[in-house]
Amino acid sequence: MDKQKKKTSHFPFRLNVLFFSVFVLFSILILRLGFIQIVHGENYKKDLERKEDITVSNPVPRGKLYDRYFRVIVDNVPKSAITFTNQGFSQTEMLQTAERLGQLIEKNTDRVTDRDKRDFWMMKHPALADAKITKHEKDLYAAKKLSDRDLYKLKLDRITDEELKKFSKQELKVLAIFKEFTSGYKFIPQIVKNENVTDEEFAFVSENLQSLPGVDTTTDWERFYPFDYTLRSVLGKVTKSEEGLPAEQLEYFLARDYHRNDRVGKSQLESYYEEILRGHKAKIKNITDKTGTVIETQQVIDGRKGKDLVLTIDMDLQKAVDQIVEEELLKAKRWPGTWLTDRAYVVLMDPYSGDILAMSGKKLTRNDKTGRLEMQDDALGTFTTTYSVGSAVKGATILTGYKTGAISPGTVFDDTGIKIKDTPIKKSYAYLGRLNEITALKKSSNVYMFHTAIRIGKGHYEYDKPLNFSNKMAFETIRNSFASFGLGTRTGIDLPNEQTGFKGQSRLPGYLLDLVIGQYDTYSTMQLAQYVATIANGGYRMQPHIVKEIRNPVQGKDKLGPVLKEISPTVLNTIDAKDEWLHRVHTGFRKVMQEPGGTAYKFFKGAKYSPAGKTGTAEAFYDGPLRHRYGKEPPPVMNLSLVGYAPSSHPEVAMAVLVPWAYHGKEDNKANLKIGRRVLDTYFKMKQGSNY
Question: What is the superkingdom listed in this entry's lineage (predicted)?
């Protein structure tokens, strides 16, 4: 009985211990919860309510381009677009959205690659993809001898062509859309489709935006050219939305607040003035919670379109000059001995301001598919390609002779050919008698220029004897002087990739004689225009420029805004020539075109605008697109050039014409003179409305 009582008495005790333990544990829990709530509660509450501000930029239209009379050359035209903004969606969510969107729009699948298809197949068939891995490979993976990347590549490689061919057209369309989704960056709108978006597609997507997270309909823009292909090679190009930033300039643009899928100027004027044309993007602040979900959007900065450029070009004149060059190039192509002729260039420039009024280049190229010749714009070639130009440079030779004291006004030389020992005789196209420098320019005497060069080099000439110069810097002297006119140096035009030309490397005395008649170094049409403008305006080398003004845009209005910056005329240097020297060269140039016996008189006689200038013919070696047909020895060809200005007394326009590889053999098509006369006639007709 006593033992039973003892056993019974332990039960309440144990129960009490259990209750006490539970009480203690609950007390500790309550105290802990209270401590957390009182001491750390505010911090945890902030964590739950934590937000993150992410500012993104939306693109704006580029600035417009106008000609000097404010006619639009390059515009922006609106077009419907469908975009996707990744707001932190998972891959599965984006695929579901892509499938829904694929039911509403058409999408070109040309950009879908084989690799895209394989990745897509694996995403759609994960179990089948896993089955392509052997047990041995899985063991290697478990032993860490194969990485995730290795396994993924094995799966990709083992997907068969037959499996890929099972994709339906609809699935490929979904893949193309999904590829656009995944090629963008978080919170940055990515173009899904902006070409040929129909009104029905735009409406369908707009009506279903609630079931298409991240998708939006908007207005995009593209460059429009009211003058079609006129001057297109100089205006340049803008990257397409799928191109984005050029890979070779990626870091440069990213450091300047660009996005990887932004469109930028990628060539010529669009590229050179990118910082001005690009505009200021709209800044949008996306406020997200800690899961990355956007809970609020705020407009921070309104977008502002790019600034507008007013060019120096007169587009009516440009079109007229283009037509002349095209017509005369095609006519020249029909002459005997001109089958290598394929291009021609013209530059018109204001000699006092440096304004480029027109810059025309045309090139005949053969279409690989049709085999037919096609005319292409090559205005770019006026400053990116150089050629031997011949006697057009003789004005610079005479003025160099004056400056060095080699000749003085009225110096006379006999035009008898020069014979250097062991070299062919060097002469003019005919014996021209005894000449002063004015007549030498008028009749284009080579021999007069040879004697001038010999004196600059401080050489002594005897018939059929070696010719040596005591002035070892003769080449530098002449080239530096030519550069002061713009020949053989950068003109400073506000466009990229200007070429200075080739300088002959040999310093044999005979080549110095070739240099002063334009048959050794090479020059561009733009250099010729700057050179003749320097002579025309009294000795000031003006920097040529194609942009006249920069203007602020006017938001919401189709008109020009206020002038932000006007490009003032810039004098690069003077040639330090006496007025008397310039007057004598002016006289020689005027006689070339206005007096019987002048090399351009037959083509310019009767012109009421009093032209002055200098012709040029240079024997050169063909190095064009058909060179491969001739191996190492292509045939010698003749380059034709012409520089001029008008009126001769008070010039208002300077002109340069260059027709490379104009003919080979004895035929002379005079394309330079035909183009030059028609261009100046057209300029003054358009300017004054008179018949010249």
Answer: Bacteria
